[in-house]
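Task: fold both queries, return tokens.
Query 1:
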Amino acid sequence: MIIRVFRAKVRPGKADEFERLVKEQSVPMVKKQRGVIAVYAGRPVGSNSNEFTVTSVWKDLTDITAFAGKDWEKSVIPPDELPLLEETYIHHFELFHGESQAM
């Protein structure tokens, strides 16, 4: 399984709008993809007051590339969200331990 972590720094004053769009657009878009096991969206807590995350768990890298294309190491962002963002980051991790794994 692959963990895909998207982080976004949101422009000042745009947090509420970004959160709404993530709930309405991004999460449903990711959830309907083949191979998606889970999707979690997080708002900032503490000193990272303008940084949000969407973390998804995928069956394998093949399913991520079917979603994100050949540039799978780049963020997939709906056009309505782009003007709200200052910076984005995308990271991938292979799951080696977790409750759903046989131990």
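Query 1 returned. Query 2:
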Amino acid sequence: MNVYVDSLTTALARAGVECDVFCRAERPDAPAVVEVQPGYRVINLAVGPRRALSRAQWPTIIDEYVERAGDFIRVEGGYDVLHAHYWLSGAIAHRLKHELDVPLISTFHTLARVKAAAGFDDDLELERDEVEDGIVRCSDMIVANTHEERAELRALYDAPAERIEVLSPGVDHTVFHSRGRDTAKARLGLGERPTILFAGRIQPLKGADVAVRVLAGVHDLGAELVLVGGPSGIDGERELQRLDRLVDELGVRDRIRFVPPQAHDALARYYRAADVCIVPSRTESFGLVALEAQSCGTPVVASAVGGLRHAVEHERGGFLVGCCDAANFVGPVRALLEDRALQARMSAGAVEHAAGFSWSIAAAKLRRLCSDLTSRELVQCS
């Protein structure tokens, strides 16, 4: 989500739309305002303690956040549109919309009821789904990543169809490109073994355990799994411990390389070095990893869930398979590692597919939508 917000804001600023991104200051030395580039500022609000907060503490800062953000906006002279990303930001922006009489755009990125349908109800104690329901009812526009997410908003939240717009995320093709694939492994010291990549947060939702089981399923090929990411969320540490035990149970310790979370741009080196990238998410609103990997010429094998069905074109830049069971991934991964002609064809198809997604296209559409929105009457909460 951070990549999404930063990339889209950068593209909007370059298109002449001035944007401020509001964050909570987590460090004592965080400056109040940071100009990222002309037209793009980050506003670090002094809300709560200057340190990271636990999941349970998130809702406790909403009142103070609304007050601090409202004060800043009034001094600055106001904004034409508020755009909330994620449900917590939506809860804040929902109140600011009414205080400031400004239209609200909401992008959820993930939805509590979609997660619950997939067996992940860890947000229930925060009453997240009720908060999201209120945001949906009062948003002047909801931006969905895909038509699948649009359908989920309609079915699970009864979101008005006329207020939902589909805006596909993009990829920065100046960073994520296929040039240098032939030397990428050597630059990372990976050697010549077939390389499988998993890049993502270590939490049950992302399916890192599936990646480890896939590695075991192609053990005869001498493949190596590079797992880039760290524990995240309420179950992150527990999932990391479970993953560690699984590695030993399957006897693949010597063929797996754990890499800590990388800066976004640095991920391109890992994408280019991999022979195949697997995205075994159990639910996914879009799946930027799948798109970025393809832009680097790496075929993807991904769960056929949510936005991944949009990010990956089956049998063009990779394969879409049944969710959650490693057995569904092993066959396509094996085929890509064994058949160099297939891998080359999929690599070319992946680049072609990813070329259709760009942040400049997304920003241009959002700019038009915002312009239209400012001329309408505000939606009132139902």
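Both queries returned. Flag for query 2: The chain is about 45% helix and 15% strand.
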